[in-house]
UniProtKB/TrEMBL annotation:
Gene Ontology CC terms: outer membrane-bounded periplasmic space; plasma membrane
Protein name, per record: Penicillin-binding protein
PANTHER family xrefs: BINDING PROTEIN TRANSPEPTIDASE, PUTATIVE-RELATED, PENICILLIN-BINDING PROTEIN 1B
Domain Penicillin-binding protein transpeptidase: 334-605
Cellular compartments annotated: Cell membrane
Family: In the C-terminal section; belongs to the transpeptidase family.
Signal sequence region: none
């Protein structure tokens, strides 16, 4: 704020005179092509200058997360706003709105004379158009240079936009304190109702705030807000918008605030949705990770609706069971639940007592998958490459050694020639490694690359991978997505949490669908389904079994030194993966002996509702 004695007086006087003459010049300016061409070139109105709220919805279209990009704003067309609210701001802020060309030269001069007397910039004399220009395209710096820019912007805005367009921008850009921008957002924030349901008293109460948001903040100084409300009502009476009786009734009405809370539910799922949004942008707009992050931020600021496959009942079930089981310990767990018929992620968890945007163990934790990798890297490719697609086919499960690598079976047990089913359901390590050796690791990895395993490395292409020996590993969501291939006749299509992303007007920006890839034959997929079923019936996964009339099958996995416990399997509707471990790996041998992971999987699957 400028306070400079005689210096201020001289500057203010010259600025007042210049601004008045400049305004008169623009008012009388002939349609000079050169002048207007310069304005057209130098002043561009970016449609994205106003940040809007975005929304994330569940599979039923219900809001689960408001996404604010620094400003809480619900953009609303002018025709959907209460007419009395629009007329209120016209009466108070700019009674000549429909007559001027963006600025009021006499008003500016009057304001400057007030500033001259006050020895500071106290009044601006801004029209509604000028306020829009300042709010969206300029700064709020109180200098005469900025004021002159404001006049030019306002003049150009009136050339390019209709009065209604400008009013709509104004009603959506004015600030109502507490991070709230726009009249509709203020209505929703302070009264938890749409503006169409507000009374005259409530409308004028809100209208009092923008004049000085810090001074008239109703959460801090409601008495001052009500004093300003009375000024608003009196000016509306003077303008002929209201009667004295309406003013009296409005002042007698008690204002009761009903603050709305920002909707931000299901932090595990919503955090993953933000990640998947960027992942989709990488794939569909050919961006790198940094570019996708910037693009996602840009779209969220423009206002989008992210429609997801979230099933709140499933998500709550999984989250509650994991938290109840592990919240009192230092053990972590994460799960992914996929509707394999719809190919959608209905639930995903980030860890016990997860907080939004914390490290997400559902997709960020890369761990050794142990024996859960065997169906994908050993059994499936082996059947495809050798034609041994029957569970009753035989494989040598005896001791194996090659180039110094000599894997052992659990407990050091040695076997001979067994059926594929026996090797699968008892999880023989030597058989899995021998299969990969027979087809070569390169061939096995040619199948693995058809899935979504972003952390595969060239150095992983070796025999230990058959038992989960990867340099970085996989997340539980990576593994669960891959296992859907066995429920879809050997075809794989990336399961997604996001169905589509649209503009607020419904135009599709991003789609969550992906192309189907054939990985295994239907015969191979069906054989592995059968072996997974037998694993639950009489193999290493019996603790996961529960009574059901439909299909039930899965595969256990344990990494070296019992650092990671896995179970991934399916019923008729869902493919679900469970990982249990510590953030800093340490032995879970006791938990493995107690079948914590398989029992956890069973508890979850038993309580999931049948997919619609």
């Amino acid at each position: 704020m400028i306070r400079t004695g005689l210096g201020f007086t001289a500057v203010a006087f010259l600025a007042a005179a210049f601004t008045f003459l400049f305004g008169e010049l623009l008012e009388q300016l002939p349609q000079t092509p050169t002048f207007h061409e310069v304005l057209d070139e130098e002043i561009q109105f970016d449609a994205a200058a106003m940040t809007l709220n975005s929304r994330i919805t569940d599979r039923h279209g219900v809001l689960v997360s408001d996404v604010y990009s620094g400003e809480n704003r619900i953009y609303t067309p002018l025709e959907e706003m209460p007419e009395v609210a629009v007329n209120m701001f016209l009466a108070v802020e700019d009674r000549q709105f429909y007559e001027h060309k963006g600025f009021d030269g006499n008003g500016i001069a009057r304001a400057l004379m007030v500033n001259l007397q006050a020895q500071e910039i106290d009044q601006g004399g801004s029209t509604i158009t000028q306020q829009v220009a300042r709010n969206l395209y300029l700064t709020h710096e109180q200098t005469y240079e900025r004021k002159l820019s404001e006049i030019l912007y306002a003049y150009q805005m009136e050339r390019e936009m209709t009065k209604e367009d400008i009013l709509e921008l104004y009603m959506n850009s004015i600030y109502f304190a507490n991070g709230v921008y726009g009249f509709e957002s203020a209505s929703q924030f302070y009264f938890s109702r749409p503006s169409s349901e507000l009374s005259l008293a409530e409308i004028t109460f809100l209208g009092a705030i923008p004049n000085a948001p810090s001074r008239f903040d109703p959460l801090v100084n409601s008495e001052a807000t009500m004093e300003r409300q009375e000024v608003m009502l009196e000016r509306m009476v003077t303008a002929g918008i209201l009667t004295e009786r309406q003013l009296t009734d409005a002042l007698e009405e008690q204002i009761v605030l009903d603050l709305s809370e920002r909707t931000d539910d299901f932090p595990d799922y919503v955090s993953y949705v933000h990640h998947e949004f960027e992942e989709l942008l990488i794939n569909q707009e050919n961006l790198d990770a940094e570019g996708a992050a910037e693009r996602a931020k840009e779209l969220l600021q423009q206002g989008v609706i992210i429609e997801t496959a979230l099933d709140p009942d499933v998500q709550n079930t999984v989250t509650d069971i994991i938290n109840d089981r592990f919240s009192a310990s230092d053990i972590q767990a994460a799960a992914s639940v996929i509707d394999h018929e719809m190919n959608e992620i209905t639930a995903i968890t980030g860890g016990t007592a997860y907080q939004k945007f914390d490290f997400h163990r559902g997709w960020q934790a890369s761990r050794s998958p142990g024996s859960t990798i065997k169906p994908l890297l050993s059994f499936g490719p082996f059947m495809e490459e050798t034609g041994e697609d029957k569970a009753g086919s035989y494989i040598d499960s005896g001791p194996f050694s090659k180039n110094g690598y000599s894997p052992r079976n659990f407990g050091g047990t040695e076997y001979g020639v067994v059926t594929l089913e026996q090797a699968f359901k008892q999880s023989h390590n030597t058989a899995a490694v021998r299969m990969l050796d027979k087809i070569t690791p390169e061939t096995g990895f040619s199948y693995l690359r058809k899935f979504d395993f972003p952390r595969l490395k060239e150095e992983d292409i070796r025999l230990p991978a058959a038992l989960g020996g990867f340099s970085e590993g996989m997340s539980v969501n990576d593994m669960t997505r891959a296992y859907t291939v066995f429920q879809n006749k050997g075809d794989y299509r990336t399961p997604r949490a996001i169905r589509q992303v649209t503009t607020l007007d419904g135009d599709v920006i991003v789609e969550g669908t992906s192309a189907s890839v054939s990985v295994y034959s239907a015969e191979t997929a069906d054989t592995i389904r059968g072996m997974m079923k037998r694993t639950v019936e009489s193999g290493t996964g019996t603790a996961a079994r529960y009574e059901t009339d439909g299909y039930l099958g899965g595969k256990t996995g344990t990494s070296d030194d019992f650092h990671d416990l896995w179970f991934i399997g399916s019923n008729d509707w869902y493919t679900t993966g469970i990982w249990v471990g510590h953030d800093q790996p340490q032995s879970l041998e006791n938990q493995s002996r107690d079948q914590v992971h398989t029992r956890l999987w069973r508890n979850i699957m038993q309580q999931l509702p049948a997919a619609p």
